Predict the structure.
Amino acid sequence: MNSLTLIVLLTGLSGLVSALAASVFLLLDERRRSALLPHLVSFATGALLGAAFLGLVPHALESIGPGGAHRVGMGLLLGILTFFLLEKFVLWRHCHDDPCEMHSPSDAARDAASARMILAGDSFHNVLDGVLVAAALMTEPRLGIVTALAVAAHEIPQEVGDLAILLHGGYSRRRALVLNLLTSLTSVAGGVAAYFALGTALHLLPYALAFAAASFIYVAVADLIPGLHRRVDMRAGLEQVLFIGLGVAVVYFTHAQMH
């Protein structure tokens, strides 16, 4: 199986799995959703950090060779600043809690605008996810699989939040599910574009990996972890550590088994 086929397969499966898992999640009653969502976010945090620090960064350093560590560090720094600016300008909006702070339940027009913005922002986000998976896979197939796993893990709680916003913005359940699935699959376009772009500029792969790691680190540290800190009781803290550790362990063992 060639690299392009693997990229299409991994990005498509990652988007499909996250969208369908979020759809099934919404079938649960509100009490169960509220109880399960924090665990999903904790697991996603561990998976993202594990993929960044156990997979992407080491491979970026190996790919760039001796003397390139500072350039990889610069790529990480620029990546984190880039994602900060993107989120600042609402091009990339994550919403892991329901309801989301960005819209007012009393203002139907703003709710509808928020829903449209979520669709546009999530499409951009998923295209970028496709680029990250492609960059990892072109470095090493097993790294691409680990990256796709981490992408799917953090997409599930985000997709749940997105669906809630679409429903609140006046979309029917069926239309919200279809649109959410279509935006999830835009990752395939990002992966294909990255394949052709990076295929002619292989020297950029280490920086693409650093950029991917920056994405995962930023989402985990700036978006997910602050939400986890809202629960301060001992039991919640222990559960968070357990599921973060589980996310790291899944990435670690997945990567190890593919050697």
Observations:
- Confidence is low (pLDDT under 50) at residues 91-106.
- Residues 3-257 form one domain.
- Residues 207 and 248 are 23 Å apart (CA to CA).
